[in-house]
Amino acid sequence: MKDQIKAEVRKLRTTRSVWGLLAGAVALASIAAWGMVSTGAFGTSVALTTLPGFAEMMAIVPIFVVVLGIRSYTDEARHGAIVPTLLATPRRRRVVAAKAVVMGAAAVVFALACTVAVAGVSLALLAADGVAVTVSLAALAILVGKAVAICVLWSVIGLGLGLTVPHQVAAIVGSILWMLIGESIIEMLAPGVSRFLPAHASTSVLGIVPADMSVVAPAVGAALLGGWAALSLGAGTRSLARRDIA
Amino acid sequence: MLTTTNQTGSAAPAGATEPIASPAIVARGLTKRFGAVIAVEDLSFEVRPGLVTGFLGPNGAGKSTTMRMVLGLVHPTAGTATVLGLPYASLDRPATAVGAVLEVQSFHPLRTGRNHLRVLAAASGVPDGTVDDVLEIVDLEGAADRKAGGYSLGMRQRLALAAALLGDPRVLVLDEPANGLDPQGIRWLREFLRWFAGRGNAVFVSSHLLSEIAQMADDVIVIDQGRLVRQGSIAELTGGRSSLRVVSPDHEGLGRALIAAGLEPRSDDGGYLVADAPADLVGEIALHAGVALSELAPRETTLEEAFLELTEGAER
What global pTM score does this model have? Predict the structure, then answer.
């Protein structure tokens, strides 16, 4: 397993588009934070961890880590690189496990980088406006922990999706549409159902919930998101185990 | 262009050279159906150590599917395949047992050749230093730090061969490895595979180039439409099948006489080839038919003729 993890880390580090995804996530999260802070009214003092930029960030970054997870398998399938991968490690579950570990680790990096970017942009803008920002380390640690956990689970959802639907474009476009508008449409049609879906569960975990959104309790949301990740990874593992690499 | 400077293996990774005692690859009743299509049917064969075993068959005969079943990439519908006595998926460190070259494109095009090999070295539990060794063996050091997507077909084949050699394996499985290689590259490959097998290792190589197989293989497995047509040494395949080339100014008259005598003449460049018939019998037939002969000579059956005869026979 150690060898497979090392190989997956090397794949990530030698794929330039991964760095592009990270840069894109940080840039979009920063822009979102800038937009939220510059148009918001905060009075003379505000707590860092209640800033809406973090909610915006967590609507954006999961999309990037899902794409990262999807590409982990579909890139290899697309270029034929999956053949030497499976020749080196014919126990396919081991390949999936190594990918899940490394995707999860990459998602931690995405979550931390974006949190730092959003906090930095927000602090700079608020300081320029003369707004005092209070920072509770305990609250910050909880926020960061939630962001990290959410991103890790989304990366695993992405990996499972990529394994189940190896057509890269279909998997990426489908998942982005789902995250951006799919659940909103379901919320309009069946509000009782939508709160159990992954993006809604993700929002409930973070705890910064838009007024018009119906969500479950944070702990239930965490369990739901974990369940979706397990379901996706399970389906993906089963799919790869049965697939003929012809 | 490949050079032959390394063909004696001076740059090969250090490792096992002990001959393998039992068959390197054993297939028993291998069958693969893709929906209604039967790609491989009840195929059994053995690949022995110390030999180069050619795997011959027309396009679509099931060669690639068979190799992929041996390597655990395709699940057989029925039957088993073992490598060094175990199913591929049960091998502890498969890269040290088997190296495989299956397709020309098997890398991320934006990754350099060296980084591609470093990824596989990590996955195989092989030291990074081996990457330089295998790059040297296939003479790809100069291009190692270029993106593999820009490689020529021949360079891609050499990169795939380098990947196959990473674990210093005991068995090589190669699907059409000569594709894209220039003549010098093909000669290098042939000599390399002969050298590799000469160390007691096994080589299982498919090709549609019969002349290539004839020059490098000891054993040949011939399949057609997914079924085994014949397995044996090249000598067994071509030997015992002597034929005569017989030519007459009265071409049609000769043909009629031979058929009337119960032989099966095949047209061959203005004359006929007659299998398994002694020269004095053919001469006598011609004499009785009043047909003059301008040529009557024994002809050794080439592998190509044997192959065509075998696969045509299978179709019938």
Answer: 0.81
